[in-house]
Amino acid sequence: MTVFTEETRARAREIIARYPADRSRSALLPLLHLVQSEEGYVSPAGVEFCAEVLGLNKAQVGAVATFYTMYKRRPTGDFLVSVCTNTMCNVLGGQEVYDTLAEHLGVGHDETTADGKITLEHAECLAACDYGPVMTVNYDFFDNVDPQSALGVVEELRAGGRPMPTRGARLCTLKEMAVQLAGFADERDGAVADGGPGEPTLRGLRLAEQHGIAVPGFDPNTPIRSKAEADKAAAEAKAKAEAAKPAPATAPAPTGSAVASGTPGNAGVGEPAPAERATGSTAPDVKSPDDKSPEIRAAETRQPDARTAVPDAPGTKVPTDPTAPAPRDAREAQAAGTAANAPAGDGKPAGDEAGAQQRNLKEAEAGAGSNGAGSAVASETGVQK
């Protein structure tokens, strides 16, 4: 049984700390990548480890681990080679690429070579149709492959080399990739400095440059601000906007009116109460929806409770369920519906009458030898009957 290292446990605590205390189970996905980075797959011991640190049972963890294809349930090679065999890539030769690799490596889908280097799989879609046929090695792209170029990639991998992907950073092993998927940076020197975008990806930028299209006021040399800087700038802009707002004008009280104290019951004669002035209703105000949490607002929207006021606007009526029909009325309605919709039989739609079908068929056969006008008359007569 695998005993996970203290480094893995420290990283697990760091992952869990990214989430609110009452939402720690949200850390399950990166934790599964973390245990895969140590074992090369999600083993029963890995499932037990995730359940232990999150306070879940193993069935809950296993349900997630078996749902997503990026979590491997058996030992996987250093390099996971995925060939797209979905519609676009298949039309362009993706299946031929996969078949060639399977025959050359002597393995099938989700199987690993004897030297433990390569695990082959066919993928339903790798989201790169404009580069098809494509394959990935540990989720890095090799575009526009054919059988021979794909063979060259896997042979270089088996010889200990690291072929450069068409797009993206230099290759790493599946375990190293799992560390990154768990949310930790690639610590290899210069690892993320390599690679570049593909030409189809840049096509939109090329067209924009060609036609002089640009975002108004955009300066590509402006550095991206940190979150703290962006929050500070937003707060300053909000404070400036608040300061620029004009002070609300106070309307003078009508002559001869009673003292308006702000409560509905103290409004003067002819002076509507504040709630009535705003909405035409004399109902007391209720809290704004924004005063409640999103979960409570969603629950009240989906299933309002007659005992709780709906927090939309003053005077809003709370919806209530209508009176349930009596059992006898319900049974009569069900019987009437069943009688009006007889079940289909012998492949005929419900409600068809066999006698009418036979009569129309005989009339059509009788009119088959007649001229076109006779046939049309017979057909029309049959339809009318």
UniProtKB/TrEMBL annotation:
**InterPro entries, per this entry?**
NuoE-like, NuoE_dom, NuoE_N, Thioredoxin-like_sf
Q: Where is the composition biased (Basic and acidic residues)?
A: 226-243, 287-305
User: Where along the chain is composition biased (Low complexity)?
Assistant: 244-254, 319-344, 373-385
Q: Which range is the signal sequence, renumbered to this chain?
A: none
Q: Name one GO molecular function term.
A: NADH dehydrogenase activity
Per the entry, which co-factors are needed? [2Fe-2S] cluster
CDD domains the record matches? TRX_Fd_NuoE
Family as reported in the entry's similarity comment: Belongs to the complex I 24 kDa subunit family.
Q: What is this protein called?
A: NADH dehydrogenase subunit E
Organism listed in the record: Micromonospora coxensis
For this protein's source organism, the top of the classification is: Bacteria, Bacillati, Actinomycetota, Actinomycetes, Micromonosporales
